[in-house]
Design a protein that fits this description.
This protein is of the alpha+beta class. The protein has three helices and four strands, in the order αββααββ. The protein has a four-stranded mixed beta sheet. It starts with a helix and ends with a strand.
Length: 113
């Protein structure tokens, strides 16, 4: 009987680990899907100078706007509001990187997601 209990406890631990890994990978997949959705929403805004894109590897959504760095930083609360409104979730480390043609397409603002 004791061997059966140890086996059951071992299987429980194994299933817990597998489930935790699956949950973590699902969150990553959801982040990429949400980044794609965020790009579609932002592309519908005439403020962008080119189509937005995202990189799941770099955990970034990249947009370009014709604004000064100070004005670009003001977009962060607006982007956060879009994310919240659409109930998007991102794993830790995802950001929106904003570039500007006036700066040679250098990053002028970073907004955490």
């Amino acid at each position: 009987m004791e061997v059966r209990n140890k086996f059951a406890a071992g299987m429980f631990c194994f299933l817990t680990i597998v489930t935790a890994q699956y949950a973590d990978s699902s969150a990553t997949d959801e982040s990429a899907e949400n980044a794609s959705l965020l790009c579609k929403i932002l592309d519908g805004n005439d403020a962008l100078t080119q189509a937005s894109e995202f990189s799941a590897e770099d955990r970034t959504v990249n947009i370009s706007v014709d604004r000064s760095p100070e004005d670009a930083k003001k977009l962060c609360p607006e982007i956060s509001a879009i994310v919240e409104y659409h109930e998007m979730t991102f794993t830790q480390g995802w950001t929106v990187q904003i570039t500007s043609p006036d700066s040679g397409y250098d990053v002028v603002a970073i907004c955490p997601l």
